[in-house]
Every structure is written in structure tokens, then in C-alpha cells.
Amino acid sequence: MASLISFLSLALFLVLSFSFALAFDPSPLQDFCVADVGSSVTVNGFACKDPKMVGADDFSFTGLHLPGNTSNPVGSKVTLINVDKIPGLNTLGISLARIDYAPYGLNPPHKHPRAAEIFTVVQGSLEVGFVTSNPENRLITKILSPGDVFVFPFGLIHFQRNIGNSKALAFSSLSSQNPGIITIANSVFGSNPDIPSDILAKAFQLDKNVVKYLQSKF
């Protein structure tokens, strides 16, 4: 009986370990694998550039000090530094983003299908939050000031809003070289082709004309 319990415990540990390993980008098996964006080879990520052809520019990016243009309907701009900007990030499982906010600007509810996120405020006051999964759908929210840090768990819908009358700035680190983003309103009301309006009307308990109006906005 004791041996059976030990076996089951080991099996459970291996299953949990394997599941956790699948939740993030694969770990590198060499010093680096700089993305060869011109390669015709299709892999989960990018094929590796010849190491003899790699240079410092493959591991650097210039321009993160430049403010993003927040002249848009939501009043925010995300500048994502991922493997497309720094080829040396390939296989490393990390990326970085600068988020600029106009006064009262919003980074709308969204999720990253491949990453958790750690968020640091540099300037301004931001209201941030995320929603837990069904059935609780609990909103966890906090007001952040410069120097404050907040974590958005893997795959959960989250947002940030500037609650001040001056510009705000934050930086995010994400646990994927290509975290992806699904902005909820854009995905639901701006899909191509449109999700049938009767489906959305029933899902959101709205009149079809309201749904069609929202679809026209996206």
C-alpha cells in the first residue's frame, strides 16, 4: 500500500510538473537562438540564425524612451518589445512593453493568451485590475502610484486606467517572447467576419440594434 501511495504521488508530481512546463515558452537548449525571420523553416517560434552571423544589434532595441501616441479613442498606447523587435529574445520566454496613457486614458480589458505579466508604474496614478475565472468572476483591483508593482496572472482579463489629469507611464514584463493580446471589445464586436448579431444579443442580453451599433464602432 505504501509503495502504491508513493507511486501515485510521483505520478501526480510528474503530471503537474509537465503541465507547468507546457504553460510557458520552451527553455533554450543553447546560449541563444537569434530569430532568423527570413527563414522558410516553420517552427514554434523562429528558426535560429547562424551563431557566426550574430551581433550586438540582435540583442538590443533603441527607442523605448520615446512616448507613444495616445491620440486614439481609448487614450493609451502600448509599445511592445518582443521577438519581432529584438531577434535575440527568441526562445528566451520574455518580452517588455511600454504603456503610455493620456489623462484619464484606458488600456481596455484584454488578455495575453501566452503570458503572465508584471506591471510597474513609473509616472502618474493608475487604477488596475483583473477578473478571476468563472464562476466567481471576482474583480481584484488597486490604485497604483509611481514605484508600485502589480501582477496580472496568466490568461486573465485585465485593464489599466489613468485616474489623473496628467500623463501616466508604466512598463510591463511578460513571460513570453510573443505574449499576444486579445482585446475583449475588439475581438467580440470587431471580428472578421462579424459574429452573428443574434448570438451576441443573446450572450450580452442586448437588443440586436445595440449589437449592430457596437459592431459598427469596431
Automatic annotation (TrEMBL):
Q: Name one GO molecular function term.
A: manganese ion binding
Superkingdom, taxonomy of origin? Eukaryota
Q: Does the keyword Signal feature in the UniProt annotation?
A: yes
Amino-acid positions noted as binding Mn(2+) in the UniProt annotation, renumbered to this chain: H110, H112, E117, H158
CDD domains with a match to the protein in the record: cupin_OxOx
> Quick one: which residues bind oxalate?
N107, H112, E117
Q: Which residues form the signal peptide?
A: 1-23
Q: Which intervals hold domain Cupin type-1? A: 62-212
Q: Name one GO cellular component term.
A: apoplast
What subcellular locations does the record give? Secreted, Extracellular space, Apoplast
Keywords for this protein: Apoplast, Disulfide bond, Glycoprotein, Manganese, Metal-binding, Secreted, Signal
Report the SS bond pairs: C33-C48
What does the UniProt function comment say about this protein?
May play a role in plant defense. Probably has no oxalate oxidase activity even if the active site is conserved.
Q: Which family does it belong to?
A: Belongs to the germin family.
Its name, as the record gives it, is Germin-like protein
Q: What organism, scientifically named, is this protein from? A: Jatropha curcas
Q: Species lineage, top-down?
A: Eukaryota, Viridiplantae, Streptophyta, Embryophyta, Tracheophyta
